[in-house]
Design goal:
Elements (H helix, E strand, L loop, with lengths): L1 H9 L3 H16 L12 H4 L10 E9 L5 E8 L4 H12 L13 E10 L4 E11 L9 H11 L22 H5 L10
Antiparallel strand pairs: 1-2, 1-3, 3-4
Length: 188
Amino acid sequence: MRTLALALLGLGLAAAIVPSAAAPAAAAASPAPARTPYRIDVTKIQPKALLPKTSLHDDFIVAINNKGQVTRVLSGHRSGNTVFDEHMYGNALQMFIRTADGKAIVGKYRVNYDYNPKTTRIRRTIALVSTGGVDPNATGAVYEMLKHAHKVPAPALSAPTSGANINSDDLPALNEVFGTASPTPKPH
């Protein structure tokens, strides 16, 4: 070890040895930082001013396939609040309805959404309307929408078509813009 320290001193690395030897002593003297639990109450940071001030109610009749997936919304009564109605409709399309033991009963179900402005909570209730009467092998609504979405090509990104055309030969060098170099003459 002494030979290594002398060799390092000969190379001018003495400063690297001294701080590393003092570091364990300094670390042992200071106490370990204690982690304090920090809990965020999400209900307090939500913008409550944006929430509806009246009770809202949506009611949908949905068709369920043999996997328990909603295949389509057959009918519905909406509350009149567009944002609430769109959210609840999307929620209804994404649902799986199964029994407690995991089996699906093919048929029509009534799905109710009730918003309570005092608690700012939404209660969803589901009830079987009738068994059968729907296609048990129908594709789920979400999978059907994904299939259509994949058929439509994504829009290609291209240069903007409006506005002035920019000729890069007329632009100054970046160093000239920031003033770190003298201007260079442009070839004509």
